[in-house]
Amino acid sequence: MFKKFKVRRSHVLIFAGIIIIGVMIWLWPAFLSGREKWPQSFGYGKTATKEEIAALDIDVRPDGKGLPAGSGNAELGEVIYTNKCASCHGADGKEIKGVKLPGPPLVTGKSKAKTIGNYWPYATTLFDYIHRAMPYNAPGSLTNDEVYSLSAWLLSANKVIKSGEVMNAQTLPKVVMPAQKLFIVDDRKGGPEVK
Amino acid sequence: MEQQQDKPVKITQRKISRRTLLGGALAAAIIPVTSSFAKYVQVGVPLVPDPTKQPGPLPGTLGKRSLFENPVKKPSDISSRTPLQDLYSTITPSDLHFERHHAGVPTIDPNKYELLIHGMVERPMKFSLHDLKRFPSVTRTCFIECAGNFRTGKEEMTAQEILGLTSQSEWTGVMLSTLFRELGVDPKATWFLAEGGDAAVLTRSIPIHKAWDDAMIVYAQNGEAIRPEQGYPARLLLPGWEGNTNVKWIRRIEISDAPYFTREETSKYTYPVKDKIRMFSFEMDARSIITYPSFPQKVERGWIEIRGIAWSGRGKVEKVEVSTDAGKSWNEARLQGPILEKAHTYFRHLWQWDGSETEILSRVTDETGYTQPTLKQLIDARGKDIGGYHMNPVTSWRVKRDGTVVFKPESYK
User: Fold this and answer.
1) Phi and psi at residue B273, to the nearest 5°
2) DSSP states of B285-351
3) What's the pLDDT tens digit per position in B42-58?
4) Radius of gyration of chain B (CA)
5) Cβ atoms of residues B61 and B29 within 8 Å
6) pLDDT above 90 covers what percent of chain B?
7) Would the CB atoms of A132 and B199 count as touching at under 8 Å?
8) Is B206 left (phi over 0), alpha (psi -120 to 50) or beta?
9) DSSP H/E element including A150
């Protein structure tokens, strides 16, 4: 009986097929279990409380989000500027030919130097930046009223607002900066063009 | 070391550690030497006349450079530059990574460090350094380049002085997307604010797609904890994007539906393009430079392997071409693999110099098909009032008959 049985190619193929499928079924659970499963959440870290967020959340957006209570005007601002800023940015904030001050010019004068008046697109950036980083030797030391006053003086010295205007959370975001219309967002996406 | 930064290699003033002295003293005990060890060091001769005849110092706790090698950064008031001309491949030793900071380097206690993430999320959270290190980690190699990395003006300028504000490290940390996954980010969010814990409390607005793409919070650089100058204990890493957005000493991320127009993205890191001012230029454009031969190196007639680095913030380097005849003809350089995305890529080109005066230069093409432009092309595209940000012109070196190599400064304003 066995002698009559001829090994045909089809038998070999069927046998090989059964073996391959068998091995795949056998290994499939191992393949699955070898893959990493990420949990929904790792559970590391702590939920931040409102107080913890408020202690750090000092940023201000052009729409006024983040501006605190308080107010100031240019008259008060000029005094603070003279006491706390002029040593680096110059007596009137303008560039002086041939004199290199530690800080950049802030007020538009006769030179082409970039200033708040001719280059800054949003007035809210003044509050945000002065409040977080100035004066250089004592960052974060100014009160909200002082920062509003300094913002008012810088805007007034740059002839963006009138000297008597009060700056606060409502008025500062409404100030339209002369340079705002000049700003465009980079739209380059790579490719051969030099832009 | 700091006082010597502008001087060539000098052995005479190097200090010798106690352990080296101990090793020397032990060696001296075994083999008598006539002169005192200290005297050798002070007069600046090699420590022993024949190193095969005297055992050297014993194993130490910390490695250091050969007495004969003294690569240093070149600091100014606001930055410090990588000595690209002293490097042989693409990884920048951590202590030579360029520095740029806006109110000095803060000292942050890793045990008190926290990263706060809040804003448009289901659950605002804070993570300690320990928490950050527990998350699945990722390692990647990429460059960081300052957006203001361009200087010109005179012939006697090194690669370090021209564009030493680019460096490369192997960074390790957690993907920002892994952290965002924990918080439940509002699908309406389009931007996030990144804030540093330095005295500038520096902030930048970042499109949120970068967080889902390849942004990381990294705590390790070249295998060890990040250096303080690079953001210890943790910084934001945005591969390929301008250095300033890779906020160091990161303490807070606020998820938002609008950019903040911070000082660093309005009055700084923006530049005139014709009659407009371009902002939010994130990707660093493709760039290359020959670092050998370059000023102040000298070459000899015969075969010279020209070497340099090329990179693109938009992906991989596709090819680098080298010209040895002032740009009249170009040869494709060999690239050292593996070629990584958004990474310095080393290139080499063999050249037989016949001793005549010429100019050598390189230009890179990235995988988007962008080819590094000349300064003239940049001025034609952007106008004469071009500013100093996002400048990536081809850099040429003049090789003079006597073998000296100098920078070819081009007028720019």
Assistant:
1) -130, 105
2) PPEEEEEES-TT-B--SEEEEEEEEEE-TTS-EEEEEEESSTTSS-EEPEEPSS--TTS-EEEEEEE
3) 444 457 889 999 988 89
4) 24
5) no
6) 85
7) no
8) beta
9) helix A144-157
Within 8 A by CB and 6+ apart from A154, the residues are A77, A81, A93, A106, A107, A116, A126
Confidence of residue B34 (pLDDT cuts 50, 70, 90): very low
Parallel, antiparallel or unpaired: strands B250-256 and B224-225: unpaired
Exposure of A190 by Cβ count < 10 A (0-12 exposed, 13-18 middle, 19+ buried)? middle
Q: Within chain A, which residues score under 70 in pLDDT?
A: 1-6, 27-35
| Chain B residues touching A139 at Cβ < 8 A | 103, 199-201
Q: How many angstroms separate the CA atoms of B335 and A104, rounded?
A: 43
Pairing of strands A183-185, B276-279: parallel
Judged by DSSP in three states, B273 sits in strand
DSSP A45-111: SEEPPHHHHHHH-----TT-TT--S-EE-HHHHHHHHHHHTHHHH-SSS---TT---SS---S--SS
Cα first-last separation, chain B: 36
Query: Which position has the token pair 């050998």?
Result: B292
Contact with chain A for residue B371, Cβ under 8 A: yes
B319 in contact with A, Cβ within 8 Å: no
Structure tokens at B84: 């690209």
**How many Cα neighbours within 13 Å face the side chain of A79?**
7
For residue B200, give the 3-state DSSP assignment: coil
- pLDDT the model gives residue B104: 96
Strand, coil or helix: what is B244?
A: helix
Q: Is the omega angle on the peptide bond into residue B293 within 30 degrees of 0, that is, cis? A: yes
Tokens 């670092």 belong to which residue? B291
Cβ within 8 Å of residue B71, ≥6 positions away: B65, B83, B86, B87, B93, B96
CB contact under 8 A, A184 and B278: yes
pLDDT of B4 above 60: no
Disruptive mutation site among A115, A137, A158, A186 for chain B (greatest number of B CBs within 10 Å): A186
| Model pLDDT for residues B173-225, shown as the tens digit of each residue | 999 999 999 999 999 999 999 999 999 999 999 999 999 999 999 999 999 99
The pTM of the full predicted model, rounded to 2 decimals, is: 0.88
Residue B40 binned pLDDT confidence (cut-offs 50, 70, 90):
very low
In 3D space, the residue among B309, B273, B267 whose CA is nearest the CA of residue B288 turns out to be B309
Q: For residue B151, what pLDDT is reported?
A: 95
CA distances from B245 to A101, B156, B241, B280 (A): 27, 32, 7, 10
The pLDDT, as a whole number, for residue B26 is: 42
Neighbour count for residue B43 (Cβ, 10 Å): 10
